Amino acid sequence: MRPDEISGVIKTKFPQAKEEAGTNNIIVPKESLLELAQYLKNPPLAFDNLHCITAVDRKEKMELVYILYSICERHGVTLKVYLTPEDLNVASLSALWKSANWLEREVYDLFGIIFSGHPDLRRILNPYDWKGYPLRKDYSNPELIPKPRL
Amino acid sequence: MAVIEKIPAAKLIRKVPGGGLFLTTSESLLKWGKASSLWPMTFGLACCAFEMIAAGASRFDIDRFGAGVFRASPRQCDVMVVAGTICIKMGDCIRRLYAQMPEPKYVIAMGNCAVSGGIFYYDTYSVIKGTEALGIAVDVFIPGCPPRPENLLFGLMKLQEKIRNEKDAAR
Amino acid sequence: MDTTRTKDIYTEEFLINMGPQHPSTHGVLSLELKLDGEIIRECTPHIGYLHRSMEKIAENRTYTQFIPFTDRLDYVASMNNNLGYVMAVEKLLNLEVSERAKYIRVIVAELNRIASHLIAVGTFAQDLGAFATPLFYCFREREKIIDIFDRICGNRLTYNYIRIGGVQFDLPKGIDEKIKEFIKYMRPKVDDYDNLLTYNAIFLARSKNIGVLPKDLAINYSVTGPSLRASGVKWDLRKDEPYLVYNKFEFDIPIGENGDSWDRYKIRIEEIRQSLRIVEQAIDALPGGEPAVKVGRIHKPAPSEAYFRTENPRGELGFYIVSDGSMYPYRLKIRAPSFSNLAVLPELVKGVKIADIVCVLGSFDVLMGEIDR
Hints:
The structure holds three protein chains of three kinds. Chain A is an alpha/beta fold. Helix content of chain A is 21%, strand content 25%. By secondary structure, chain B is an alpha/beta fold. Chain B is 34% helix and 11% strand. Chains A and C meet through strand 3 and helix 3 of A and helix 8, strand 6, strand 7, strand 8 and helix 12 of C.
């Protein structure tokens, strides 16, 4: 299916999902994420491959990006969820796609977003007793020597 | 007579005229033995590990220097070649491995990352900037990113020279 | 000895650490194993021993300054990493490169794929016990490829050759004869590996039916690359979402049947043969022209984002770049194939012996520089 057809199908089933301006990404409110994910996994859309989960720190909000692909139907979609800094809590998708297990652990390690329902949420790349979330824009560490900008 | 000048340890031995005998001191013999059979530990961390393996493969052949036996256990090694970036999580392991090696032990820091942090010096929160920053005394530094296998062999020869000129051979 | 007395022997599970420094964990990976004698009951991988914070570095380097860092991600297939990153940046900038640059990129990427698969095959055979011979043969072949790369761009391991807009230098004179000579040299050597290893009775006994990865589990865990194809899924980005000029070449995609370690090894040998076919066709069809489009060193893309994935020797490497209009990226995410490939390991090793976990890990061909970034 083409990207605009996919977003059309999603918007008819889930009216609270909006499309991002200029792209084919779908912005989902965090309460309907799990339901939408279950719908996407079933046929006819059949997204069987959760390819990548990442986060972007936009200072006044935190943006979570999910990239899904389908091997049998040969199409892809990108979902976005916005979180406020006071409430960094979202449902985990590890029951639907097992690749979400380690990908969500990495996002928790680097950004501090808590995934409720995750079987084993602990740090994966940094040491287990590390303090702070390194990829946030306001992270400070005396060992970090910044390179002078051009 | 011509052969003896080519041996690097030639300064340590004296030929007795007229016979097939050589005289040397027991210290020189010990130093020659130590330098010619350095057994490295298989300890490649990152990209430099592949240049170390290539140095052990057939084109560059580290075995002709006596160092071809790469042992995995630190208890059986003489030299630890730190090849690659040292991260905070790995720092404790390296200190423990160094402590487990029996004396006499030597350390070669291979590659820019092991020498001083390399390209990971700026903007990193999880890299230890060099082997000396861990508290381990290094004998030979080999810069390069990654250093060619010939550079590793040159560094090994420099270490052999350092061992042959040591003051206290029975360390 | 009276066998009824064995019921009084007290046994318990014990925990050992196949720690970060180990000859067969292919880098700094720590596996915590709960053992019952020799049988593994549970396996927990611990990673992060090579976490070099590349994503944080990317926020403070220009787009061109980050290219040497991509070399050090998957340090055995540097050209493919450079290619993936540069194609993502070119998607962000909406930049088209010349035909000659596309052909040169395909040639170096496929040669690097051969070099990477040679290491995978050599170290896999070494882990299974064929201690030095396959490894030395593979490294001897690899030195020939590295000689070609040395002539093209000056470095042996980390090339920094594929740049935004094309490639750094044009191919030197006489390099096509060298590449054709290498292809003629390499073809009988791949048959050599088949004769030595593939149908050897000990090799078969040690790797057939070990670590079987079923199709649905592989897709659910987002395993990609030769490991996915060994489980029977026909998916290769070079054929299914072609980029550069891959749609102009004729090559096959080898698919496995069972998904065990032997299949994963066999697919890599077949992929070497197919890559030789691609390089031969590309060298014959190399067009003239400029090797690079003239772009400056500083790029300021419009505030937008782009995601691009390419087929690395280990799987699908993806780069997600968010730009805010300045010359530094706002966020760069590297989607590493070995990260997802390693996540499936605990499921496959329940109930096998320790020697078999070494076989399964070697057949997945993971590389820690990519997992930990």
